[in-house]
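Record 1 of the preview.
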Amino acid sequence: MAVPMKKVSRMKRGFRRSADALKQPSYVEDKDSGELRRPHHIDLKSGKYNGRQILEPRDEF
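->
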């Protein structure tokens, strides 16, 4: 039967369990295009961020 060599410390146990608290990424609806996008990210369909044109608009996505 397998037996652990050493006791797992509280810190290592906490590192392993920290991934349990991760949440799913949130999405918001874009005001202009109505597409879902991440907050504080460029809308890839229209190429706009904060009301300014950053990238060229894409026809197909």
